């Protein structure tokens, strides 16, 4: 099964956050490719492969407090492995939580896993093949890129949603001075201002409507056997595509992704058209 991949350089870390959930998340892997730095550069060269056998070796297990104050305890790698919160069956990487015990309000939160990549990246093509994700009350799955000294070096949220939502929210968060245009995309553009202090810290975001981009999140994604998220990050834009299972481009499944065949992106956060941002 195709693994997640990264195609890039240095500066932003990849983070996977799985809050108190009653469902597991299966990730065949992740992959990173790098081009020549120009928009739409290609062909991309594979620089990092997060296939299941080494998936958890490439991440740091964040085990400090939750900065968003959720009812959760992030655990170490040792605790996660001992309790079966991280496993690699059938060429997939599975991240789950404690589904055995009750964790009432007022006490410790539910043990869960939050991963931060050891490697850092600047620009590239990031591909995630997702089989299953947390969904339901009390869940907050996230797949995101985060720069140091937040928000000055930015945050790119590729997958994020809560509870029983049906649509993924893709957004960026920065310091003041970054606004993007969302022209040329199939997702519903929400806000242009990426400043964390504007719009209640919603960032500059796009909603992937379940009507126009079916089964991109939650229960719909799970019932459909998952899908692939591909994000191309250049100095001019951040584009994200979602491909449902059964509709994944052949260039991705063959290991030689060609963004020119991906079609119109779900998200096209770009500098230009009266908007400026140091992407």
UniProtKB/TrEMBL annotation:
It comes from the Eukaryota. PROSITE patterns: GH16_2 (PS51762). One of its GO terms (molecular function) is hydrolase activity, hydrolyzing O-glycosyl compounds. The keyword Signal applies. Residues 20-279 form the GH16 domain. InterPro entries: Beta-glucanase-like (IPR000757), ConA-like_dom_sf (IPR013320), Glycosyl_Hydrlase_16 (IPR050546). Transmembrane segments: none annotated. This is GH16 domain-containing protein. It comes from Friedmanniomyces endolithicus. The lineage of its organism: Eukaryota, Fungi, Dikarya, Ascomycota, Pezizomycotina.
């Amino acid at each position: 099964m195709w693994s997640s991949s990264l195609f890039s350089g240095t500066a932003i870390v990849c983070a996977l956050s799985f809050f108190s959930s009653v469902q597991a998340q299966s990730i065949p892997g992740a992959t990173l490719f790098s081009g020549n730095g120009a928009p739409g550069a290609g062909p991309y060269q594979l620089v990092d492969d997060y296939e299941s056998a080494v998936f958890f070796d490439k991440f740091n297990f964040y085990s400090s407090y939750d900065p968003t104050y959720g009812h959760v305890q992030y655990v170490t790698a040792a605790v996660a492995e001992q309790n079966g919160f991280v496993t690699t069956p059938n060429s997939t990487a599975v991240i789950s939580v404690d589904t055995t015990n009750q964790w009432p309000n007022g006490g410790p939160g539910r043990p869960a896993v939050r991963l931060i990549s050891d490697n850092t990246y600047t620009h590239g093509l990031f591909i995630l093949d997702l089989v299953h994700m947390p969904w339901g009350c009390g869940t907050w799955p996230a797949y995101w890129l985060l720069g140091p000294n937040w928000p000055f070096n930015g945050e790119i949220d590729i997958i994020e949603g809560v509870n029983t939502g049906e649509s993924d929210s893709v957004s960026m968060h920065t310091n003041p001075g970054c606004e993007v245009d969302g022209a040329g995309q199939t997702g519903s553009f929400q806000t242009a201002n990426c400043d964390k202090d504007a719009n209640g810290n919603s960032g500059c975001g796009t909603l992937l409507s379940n009507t126009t981009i079916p089964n991109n999140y939650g229960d719909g994604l799970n019932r459909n056997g998952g899908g692939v998220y591909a994000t191309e990050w250049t100095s001019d834009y951040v584009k994200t595509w979602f491909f449902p299972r059964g509709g994944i481009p052949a260039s991705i499944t063959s290991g030689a992704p060609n963004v020119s065949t991906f079609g119109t992106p779900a998200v096209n956060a770009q500098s230009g058209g009266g908007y400026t941002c140091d992407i």
